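Sequence in, structure out.
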Amino acid sequence: MKRYTFDECVAIMRRLRSENGCPWDNEQTLESVLKYFLEEAYEALDAADKKDWPGLAEELGDTLWEILFLARIAEQEGLFAIDDVLQLLGEKMVRRHPHIFGEVKIDTSDQVVAQWSEIKKQEKKTKNHAQVFAKVPASLPALLRAYRISERAAKVGFDWENAAQVWDKLEEEKGELAEAIEAGERQAIEHELGDAIFALVNLGRHLGISAEDAVRRATDRFITRFALVEKQVEAEGSDFTDKSIDELETMWQAAKKETD
């Protein structure tokens, strides 16, 4: 079986996006391919969550293909080419690892993170740390963006000392949310709910857990357990509306035991 190299895959893309290439590929734009790129990235995450390693390899290939696709379109429009992407990547990685490719001495991963943050700030010519927040894409999923923002704040020392302090903050936010709900003020409820979720994101970060990953996996578990409950309800010839909340809760707990 033929083994394809990176350069050969680049050549395949260039042929598809040529005068006598694939009609569909030639119709695509940067905007249309970016949508596929995001979809492929999430499919790779899904495969990783399932520990489907052959599937992950395939999805990483699909994600790489979208990168080659975008670079080829940019090349045809005179913007940049895949060689520029690789050049910029190589330069950046060498520049941001002076402890490997230079004379800087570093012993711990925390020092690496601090150094990376400082080098990045210099590269982006940001005058203060708040401006660094603007570099976190607003288009990121909300939980992931909250994680990255709080992570960058922590790198400059604006953070709680431990998870226990974050827990106390969460309890404070829960109380404020309860007050807002009691008052029935929708805008205040949204405000306090957001603060409580942001505190949860920080709690997860202190515990080494990504809230984005945790919620995504919790949603997957919910879907699996819901399917089991629905199967049992249908087996009894019933409908959800025929069951009391206590009956559904009993079925739910049984589904949890089956999937734990």
